[in-house]
């Protein structure tokens, strides 16, 4: 059992490493191992992410024993060769090089491959100790002046113990250009001796909540052993951000919702951030500096879309009453309150104001639209979302309106339900014009199978005229953006607690170019 004391002392060296934020030299390597390992090294697959018109990050981790301490690796640095080609037979290799998988970074490899061509599919692979990794496929972003149709998948919330990742099979089949993952890639709570509904034996160390850097690393390894998740990473580039469970449920800024003392929580936050960056296809610019990490960033898909990725955890004020469903109060309506922090809010509005793209997209964690679930004139709102930070939401939506931001679309996770809503500056007045649309994707597995509609879902539709659709089953969001419209298909899976579920489109909603708000197709 891990205690607060043991998480600070049992792996003190790892905690100190996480708090430093110093990256080791990535060019020179001393004592590099060239040995041939008899066990498979690439057990956690490959991934790519954050595509630019001329670049993409490719990722892997060496882990012959993924659930063993240190992934089954020793403390030596390993040479890892990488190749990027225009074909999956690697006859037309366009870039290659050697990276170093270092023990202080859990033998992960991040390569920022430059010099690529815009809006092209590429194939990539790694080689180490005589072994070749699975092949991944990625795609660069369009050239700044181009305006192609773009397809994207939106996913979040994949509790390992709650179900199988069946939805990712559908993500792969539909061949999206990019996948957006909006938080809760792992869960910090124990998975149980049989990994919940999966009935899969896991080491006893996985039974409890995680605190140390090694424990966070092992939890990522467990999730990444899932073959459907590996296939989805190998099929397209991912653009990721985190929410709360990558560190601790409902944490806010420097506040631990588990009641950890300030300094102890900073160590835990540093551990969570370090393991997150190690296991995501992110650039060195996003690597953490101790208990801080910069995840908000801007990516452009030609003239088709500007994408602003937010971090609504690290800089927020604390939740009121731990973030449950409550009536508005003096805390949630405090005009000084923020969910993004002042600097990120200014960055977002400046980025939106400068955009010349057709679609202006915000990828973030928690619901922005007002979501009242109480019948009658009184309100009951989810305080962990923008509903608990009303002034922050008002400033952003007013800025969108005042700057006449074109085709404003917010993509959200967290709720474990699908929701489509119009965004308004004044939700209390249904006659207020819509200034944008929010699509909330359901969870991949969190919450188990779910149902088509529950009491909360029925109340959301009845009490919120701006809410156009809801569903509480598992799945993801499949979107197409072109010059005439944004089309969102809510893809649901009929079951996740057992393998073999079937995916289908539960509803399709459309936003027409130049006409804020959404409607059923």
Automatic annotation (TrEMBL):
Ranges of residues in domain PhoD-like phosphatase metallophosphatase: 152-490
InterPro entries linked: Metallo-depent_PP-like (IPR029052), PhoD-like_MPP (IPR018946), PhoD-like_sf (IPR038607), PhoD_N (IPR032093), Phospholipid_Metab_Enz (IPR052900), TAT_signal (IPR006311), TAT_signal_bac_arc (IPR019546)
CDD domains the record matches: MPP_PhoD
Region (Disordered): 317-336
Positions of the Phospholipase D N-terminal domain: 44-140
Listed PANTHER family: ALKALINE PHOSPHATASE FAMILY PROTEIN (AFU_ORTHOLOGUE AFUA_5G03860), PHOSPHATASE, PUTATIVE (AFU_ORTHOLOGUE AFUA_6G08710)-RELATED
Entries under NCBIfam families matching the protein: TAT_signal_seq (TIGR01409)
Official protein name in the record: Twin-arginine translocation signal domain-containing protein
């Amino acid at each position: 059992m891990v205690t607060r004391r043991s998480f600070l002392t049992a792996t003190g060296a790892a905690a100190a490493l996480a708090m430093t934020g110093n990256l080791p030299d990535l060019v020179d390597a001393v004592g590099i191992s060239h040995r041939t390992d008899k066990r498979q090294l690439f057990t956690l697959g490959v991934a790519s992410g954050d595509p630019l018109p001329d670049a993409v990050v490719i990722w892997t981790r060496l882990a012959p024993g993924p659930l063993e301490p240190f992934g089954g690796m020793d403390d030596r640095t390993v040479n890892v060769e990488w190749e990027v080609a225009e074909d999956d037979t690697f006859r037309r290799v366009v870039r290659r090089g050697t990276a170093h998988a270092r023990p202080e970074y859990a033998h992960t490899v991040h390569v920022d491959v430059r010099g690529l061509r815009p809006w092209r599919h590429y194939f990539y692979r790694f080689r180490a100790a005589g072994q070749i990794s699975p092949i991944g496929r990625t795609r660069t972003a369009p050239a700044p002046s181009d305006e192609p149709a773009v397809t994207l998948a939106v996913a979040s919330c994949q509790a390992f113990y709650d179900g199988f990742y069946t939805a990712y099979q559908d993500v792969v089949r539909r061949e999206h250009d990019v996948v957006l993952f909006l938080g809760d890639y792992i869960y910090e709570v124990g998975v149980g001796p049989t990994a919940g509904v999966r009935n899969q034996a896991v080491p006893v160390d996985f039974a409890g909540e995680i605190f140390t850097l090694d424990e966070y690393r092992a939890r990522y390894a467990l999730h990444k052993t899932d073959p459907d998740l590996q296939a989805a990473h190998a099929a397209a580039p991912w653009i990721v951000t985190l929410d709360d469970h990558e560190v601790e449920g409902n944490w806010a800024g420097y506040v631990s919702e588990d009641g950890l003392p300030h300094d102890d929580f900073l160590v835990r936050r540093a551990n969570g951030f370090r393991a997150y960056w190690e296991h995501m296809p992110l650039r060195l610019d996003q690597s953490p500096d101790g208990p801080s990490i910069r995840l908000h960033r801007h990516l452009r898909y030609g003239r088709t879309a500007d994408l602003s990725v937010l971090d609504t955890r690290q800089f927020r004020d604390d939740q009121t009453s731990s973030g449950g469903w409550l009536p508005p109060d003096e805390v949630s309506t405090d005009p000084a309150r923020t969910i993004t922090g002042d600097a990120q809010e200014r960055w977002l509005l400046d980025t939106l104001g400068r955009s010349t793209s057709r679609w202006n997209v915000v990828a973030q964690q928690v619901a922005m639209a007002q979501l009242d679930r109480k019948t009658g004139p009184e309100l009951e709102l989810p305080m962990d979302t923008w509903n608990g930070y009303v002034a922050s939401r008002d400033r952003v939506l007013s800025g969108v309106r005042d700057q006449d931001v074109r085709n404003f679309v917010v993509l959200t996770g967290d709720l474990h339900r699908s929701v489509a809503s119009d965004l308004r500056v004044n939700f209390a007045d249904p006659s207020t014009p819509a200034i944008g649309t929010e699509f909330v994707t359901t969870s991949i597995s969190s919450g188990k199978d779910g149902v088509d509609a529950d009491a909360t879902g029925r109340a959301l539709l009845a009490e919120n005229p701006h809410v156009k659709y809801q569903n509480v089953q598992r799945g993801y969001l499949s979107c197409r953006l072109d010059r005439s419209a944004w089309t969102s298909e809510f893809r649901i899976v009929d079951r996740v607690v057992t393998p073999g579920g079937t995916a289908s489109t539960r509803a399709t909603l459309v936003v027409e170019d130049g006409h804020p708000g959404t409607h059923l197709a």
